[in-house]
């Protein structure tokens, strides 16, 4: 049948009438009473009270101008409970995600579009896809050597210059900084403010990490307090993971979560389960260094100083005592020597006196033997010349001179009449 | 205060004096001179020790604060 024949058989429809016909036909087959499951890859997603998603065949190329696109939407009344269900499992619809929607056809004549009204989402399927995508990301990072890259960055011994990627006014921020600021150590915190949830967060976090990496801090800390899985989804973002991996500064994470570790945690140099815990671990690092290099050395210096002073004090006191005793001993020895000498001299003197006395007695005895009186008594006489001198020879006198003769009981004068030699 | 040189130097000199006493090498004529020198060394060492202790007393609390052993 050509077009002319059709015109003669079927009535000509106005556009609206045609859409009404089309809509009724489609709805009778695929409408509200005949919903179907449709699977596809999210090409675009947009939320403004209602959810709008462009679905394409999974794996199809965006450069393929003929690839079919299903403009799906989920009205707020349906979307809000579904959104909560997804958020509870930390899922948000993202481009590239493969999802399965349950719904029905929806023809929107004013724009000439055939759409799809979503009434249900296969959450389990979405979760599986999220997990699969996460695993694929981890596999890619592992294959590229990025999972361990930041772990190999040397960590300085005393990480006091701390680059902080966080959102101020949050508990995570105050918990983390509280640990550092109350530690007593002089931490220098360089903060780069970022969102830590929502669509803008990954790009901001990446820029913050790059900025701090250039700034010359000792470590970069990525901090976020606890939240739902949905709140923390930005830490599974591939851009964040890659920024951490290629950072030349060790990146520490303190992301509060109760479920699986985020990809950021896996890629990070060091991870802690909460901001508070991360703060504690950094303080412990510094405290350990301080203990080994400062506190223990200070204790040793104090102990050695005390020991040296004690030793020196004891030395001087001991030398003082030694000198006192040495001098006293020396003086005593000298005194003893003097006493001994004195005693010896006394003995010697006494001996000398005794000897002298004995000699004197002997001499006296000897002299007594020569006593003239004794001789005179025996009949000897002493003759003295005119000048009074004792005569022992006739040569001292002449005939006619007078001499004096002493006997034992008196003297008499005599004149020399004759002299004869013997 | 007498010039006694370094602590070690002074201690060595003092030890020599003490040893001379121990070995009975000190005559009575030398005794006073040696005792006077020994006394001067001991007093100088004590003075130096007291000065050092005073300085240590100033510094020790600061080191103790680092060591947390006050």
Largest interface: A-B, 24 and 29 residues
| Assigned CATH architecture of the largest domain in chain A | 3-Layer(aba) Sandwich
How many E strands of chain A? 13
Number of beta-strand segments of chain B: 0
Approximate helicity band of chain B: over 70%
Helix percent band of chain A: 40-55%
- Helix vs. strand class of chain A: alpha/beta
Could you tell me the CATH topology label of the largest domain in chain A. Answer: Rossmann fold
Q: What composes the largest sheet of chain B?
A: none
Main beta-sheet strand count, sense and barrel state of chain A: 5 strands, mixed, barrel
Along the chain, the helix and strand elements of chain B come as HH
CATH-defined superfamily of the largest domain in chain A: Response regulator
Provide the gyration radius of chain A in Å.
67 Å
User: Which word captures the global form of chain B?
Assistant: elongated
Mean pLDDT of chain A: 89
What distance separates the N and C termini of chain A? 225 Å
What percentage of the residues of chain B does DSSP assign to strands (E)?
under 5%
Number of helices of chain B: 2
Rg of chain B (C-alpha, Å): 17 Å
Walk me through the structure.
The complex is a heterodimer of chains A (422) and B (70). With 422 residues, chain A is of the alpha/beta class. Chain A has three domains: 3-140, OB fold (Dihydrolipoamide Acetyltransferase, E2P), CATH 2.40.50.140; 149-288, Rossmann fold; 374-415, no CATH class. Chain A has ten helices and 13 strands. Chain A has helices at 3-9, 15-30, 76-88, 123-143, 171-181, 201-215, 238-246, 263-267, 275-369, 372-377, and strands at 36-48, 50-56, 69-74, 98-108, 113-121, 161-166, 188-193, 219-224, 251-255, 270-272, 382-384, 402-407, 410-415. In chain A, the strands form three sheets. In chain A, strands 1-2-3-5-4 form a five-stranded mixed β-barrel. Chain A has a five-stranded parallel beta sheet with strand order 7-6-8-9-10, with helices on both faces. A three-stranded antiparallel beta sheet of chain A has the order 11-12-13, with no helix packed on it. In chain A, helix 5 runs parallel beside helix 9 and helix 6 runs parallel beside helix 7 (238-246). Chain B is mainly α. Chain B has one domain (7-67). Chain B is built from two helices and no strands. Chain B has helices spanning 7-22, 28-67. The longest helix of chain B is centred in the C-terminal third of the chain and has 40 residues, at 28-67. Chain B is elongated, with a radius of gyration of 17 Å. Chain A binds chain B through residues 294-296, 298-299, 301-302, 305, 309, 312-313, 315-316, 319-320, 322-323, 326-327, 329-331, 333-334, and chain B through 7, 11, 14-15, 17-18, 21-22, 24, 26, 28, 31, 35, 38-39, 42, 45-46, 49, 52-53, 56, 60, 63-64, 66-69.
């Amino acid at each position: 049948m050509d077009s002319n024949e059709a015109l003669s058989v079927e009535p000509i429809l106005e556009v609206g009438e045609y859409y009404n016909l089309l809509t009724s036909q489609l709805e009778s087959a695929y409408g509200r009473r005949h919903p179907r499951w449709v699977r596809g890859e999210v090409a675009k997603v947009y939320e403004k009270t209602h959810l709008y998603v462009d679905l394409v065949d999974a794996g199809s190329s965006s450069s393929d101008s003929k690839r079919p696109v299903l403009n799906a939407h989920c009205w707020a009344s349906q979307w809000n409970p579904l959104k909560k269900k997804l958020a509870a499992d930390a899922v948000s619809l993202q481009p590239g995600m493969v999802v399965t929607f349950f719904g029905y056809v929806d023809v929107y004549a004013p724009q000439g579009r055939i759409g799809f009204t979503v009434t249900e989402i296969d959450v389990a399927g979405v979760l599986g896809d999220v997990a699969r995508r996460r695993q694929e990301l981890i596999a890619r990072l592992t294959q590229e050597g990025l999972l361990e890259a930041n772990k190999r960055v040397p960590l300085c011994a005393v990480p006091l210059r701390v680059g902080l990627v966080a959102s101020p006014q949050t508990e995570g921020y105050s918990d983390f900084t509280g640990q550092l600021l109350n530690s007593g150590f002089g931490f220098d915190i360089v903060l780069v403010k970022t969102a830590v949830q929502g669509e803008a967060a990954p790009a901001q976090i990446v820029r913050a990490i790059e900025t701090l990496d250039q700034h010359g801090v000792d470590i970069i800390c990525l901090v976020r307090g606890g939240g739902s899985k949905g709140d923390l989804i930005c830490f599974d973002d591939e851009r964040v993971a890659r920024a951490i991996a290629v950072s030349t500064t060790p990146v520490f994470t303190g992301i509060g979560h109760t479920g699986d570790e985020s990809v950021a945690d896996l890629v990070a140099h060091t991870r802690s389960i909460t901001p508070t815990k991360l703060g504690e671990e950094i303080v412990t690092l510094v405290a350990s260094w301080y203990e080994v290099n400062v506190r223990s050395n200070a204790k040793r210096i104090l102990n050695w100083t005390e020991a040296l002073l004690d030793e020196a004090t004891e030395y001087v006191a001991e030398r003082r005592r030694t000198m006192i005793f040495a001098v006293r001993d020396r003086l005593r020895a000298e005194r003893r020597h003097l006493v001994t000498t004195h005693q010896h001299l006394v003995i010697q003197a006494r001996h000398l006196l005794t000897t002298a006395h004995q000699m004197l007695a002997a001499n006296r005895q000897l002299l007594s033997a020569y006593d003239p009186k004794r001789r005179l008594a025996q009949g000897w006489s002493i003759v003295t010349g005119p000048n009074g001198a004792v005569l022992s020879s006739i040569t001292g006198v002449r005939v006619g001179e007078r001499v004096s003769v002493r006997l034992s009981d008196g003297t008499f004068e005599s004149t020399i009449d004759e002299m004869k030699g013997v | 205060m007498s010039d006694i040189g370094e602590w070690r130097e002074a201690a060595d000199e003092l030890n020599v004096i003490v040893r001379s006493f121990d070995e009975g090498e000190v005559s009575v004529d030398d005794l006073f001179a040696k005792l006077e020198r020994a006394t001067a060394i001991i007093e100088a060492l004590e003075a130096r020790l007291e000065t050092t202790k005073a300085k240590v007393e100033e510094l020790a609390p600061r080191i103790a604060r680092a060591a947390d052993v006050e």
